[in-house]
Amino acid sequence: MRERTIASHFARAALGGARRRGYDYSSLLQQLGISPELLEEPRARIAPEQFARLIQGLWLALDDEYLGFGQAPSKPGSFAMMCHAVIHCRTLEKALNRGLLFYSLFPGAPRLTLSREGDRVRLGLDDSPLWDPDHFLSESLLVIWHRFGSWLIGQRIRLEQATFSYPRPGHGAEYDLLFSCPLEFSCAQSSLLFHSRYLNMPLLQDERTLKHFLERSPADLLSRPDEGDSLSSQLRRLLSRDSARWPDLEAVAAHLHISPQTLRRHLREEGTSFQELKDQLRRDIAIYHLGRADLSLQQIAEQLGFSEPSAFHRAFKKWTGLTPGAYRAQEL
């Protein structure tokens, strides 16, 4: 229930390569319980597991792990073979270099590089040759390599910066889900910057854990939010622990040992607000229950702290563009 939902933009963007290839994905959407109307609503959200299954379904249908966005297709199983090639490396640096070398052997594969900048390391992506109008493959490659590297060493690699070769897109507000760090757009290249100390860390995974990891990855890596260390991420975790009581801003500030004014200022610097974070969590909990028919609309409204079902009705439509009843009808 605490998993954050995925904006409909990412599902529409993922389908772009299939549209370009002339693939009719209507039966795949039907099979996953995703209505085309839901996808066309800009504010709509889908469950993380639905998104992961959509990605997996498209890989198989298109026979391409790049989903039609690369210069050349990447046969399903390529990512798994790369993982097997790196799993016995001693350090993260050796694993990343071997993984990037693996992909460089394929003509037309997106080019990724690892370069040192003092005590920092930059994972750079040359996305200029890609057919990627919504930047879906660019975002996916950076997310996958960051989360795969973090999984290999058993801890999240703290990102210092993420840069993008294109202007801030319309879905830029969603980037906190993908990269919990300072963002810069219209840069020379798309890249992730992190401290070089991670490169010397030993791999904590093996063949046994890799087998389990590959059951759902890399689709699973794309469907999970980045549980970063930003104040917004901390607050989401704090609020989701006890969503039944919905603490107010003053109580949360006291818990964090800072003043309410300081909390507001820090959240403003991160481009959000306490109310916005609370509404996002309420929205995601509502979507979770609406997709499962375990609670009535009134029970969901009560759990989210609304005194009247009509207030929940109005709020949900404002968040997603659909009423709770219409959303449930499309999901079930």
TrEMBL record:
<keyword id="KW-0805">Transcription regulation</keyword>
<protein>
    <submittedName>
        <fullName>AraC family transcriptional regulator</fullName>
    </submittedName>
</protein>
<keyword id="KW-0804">Transcription</keyword>
<dbReference type="GO" id="GO:0000976">
    <property type="term" value="F:transcription cis-regulatory region binding"/>
</dbReference>
<feature type="domain" description="HTH araC/xylS-type">
    <location>
        <begin position="233"/>
        <end position="330"/>
    </location>
</feature>
<dbReference type="GO" id="GO:0005829">
    <property type="term" value="C:cytosol"/>
</dbReference>
<dbReference type="GO" id="GO:0003700">
    <property type="term" value="F:DNA-binding transcription factor activity"/>
</dbReference>
<dbReference type="Pfam" id="PF12833">
    <property type="entry name" value="HTH_18"/>
</dbReference>
<keyword id="KW-0238">DNA-binding</keyword>
<dbReference type="InterPro" id="IPR020449">
    <property type="entry name" value="Tscrpt_reg_AraC-type_HTH"/>
</dbReference>
<dbReference type="InterPro" id="IPR009057">
    <property type="entry name" value="Homeodomain-like_sf"/>
</dbReference>
<dbReference type="InterPro" id="IPR018060">
    <property type="entry name" value="HTH_AraC"/>
</dbReference>
<dbReference type="InterPro" id="IPR032687">
    <property type="entry name" value="AraC-type_N"/>
</dbReference>
<dbReference type="Pfam" id="PF12625">
    <property type="entry name" value="Arabinose_bd"/>
</dbReference>
